[in-house]
């Protein structure tokens, strides 16, 4: 009778230990997933800041380069695509397209010395550069956070908890084209 009680208590202790470990791993996965969501929000904040800055810089350049309509239309389309992106992959593609069209805008600005000397344009250019730097940092932080999360859900024993609880792998924020991986050079 005493032996049966000891075995019963040991069995219950083992079950309790498994439940506590499962809960601890689950909570760790939830925290990690929330860090990923937060990191994505930081990218979103910076993309929104860039989105808000672009009309100002476009309007400033328009005053000097009214005949560059295609450049302005492409920037508007690319800007809209960034805000409509739903996944990191879509956002990366749209952001890269926007960066490319901004290069065209700055190339247009090269042809207008008065524009390059305009204090408003210089301030907008500085703000855009700062925003691009913040986006780059936010992308790096997001990718680091996603890598940690993906490692958690793919390694033993958390992968078992992740599979049971339905945790899914997240995408990194990547640039597809090799030429887009190089930093754009903007000179005035």
Largest sheet: none
Oligomer: single chain
Query: What is the H/E string?
Result: HHHHHHH
Count of DSSP-assigned helices: 7
Beta-strand percentage range: under 5%
Low-confidence stretches: none
Number of strands: 0
Mean pLDDT: 86
State the separation between the terminal residues, measured CA to CA: 89 Å
Give the CA-based shape. Answer: rod-shaped
User: How much helical structure, as a percent, in the residues?
Assistant: over 70%
Cα-atom radius of gyration? 25 Å
The secondary structure category is: mainly alpha
Describe this structure in words.
It is a single chain. With 188 residues, this protein is mainly alpha-helical. It is built from seven helices and no strands. The chain has helices spanning 2-64, 69-84, 88-110, 113-117, 119-154, 158-165, 178-181. Helix 1 runs antiparallel to helix 2 and helix 1 packs parallel to helix 3. The longest helix has 63 residues, at 2-64. The chain is rod-shaped. The termini are far apart. The mean pLDDT is 86.
């Amino acid at each position: 009778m005493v032996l049966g009680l000891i075995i019963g208590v040991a069995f219950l202790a083992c079950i309790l230990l498994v439940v506590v470990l499962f809960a601890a791993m689950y909570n760790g996965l939830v925290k990690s997933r929330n860090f990923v969501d937060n990191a994505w929000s930081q990218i979103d904040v910076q993309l929104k800041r860039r989105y808000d800055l672009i009309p100002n810089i476009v309007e400033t350049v328009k005053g000097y380069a009214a005949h560059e309509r295609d450049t302005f239309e492409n920037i508007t389309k690319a800007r809209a695509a960034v805000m409509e992106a739903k996944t990191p992959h879509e956002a990366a593609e749209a952001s890269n397209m926007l960066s490319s069209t901004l290069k065209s805008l700055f190339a247009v600005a090269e042809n207008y010395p008065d524009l390059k000397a305009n204090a408003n344009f210089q301030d907008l250019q500085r703000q855009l550069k700062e925003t691009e730097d913040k986006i780059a940092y936010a992308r790096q932080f997001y990718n680091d956070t996603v890598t940690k999360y993906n490692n958690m859900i793919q390694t033993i024993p958390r992968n078992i908890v992740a599979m049971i609880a339905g945790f899914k792998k997240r995408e990194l924020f990547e640039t597809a084209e090799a030429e887009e991986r190089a930093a754009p050079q903007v000179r005035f």
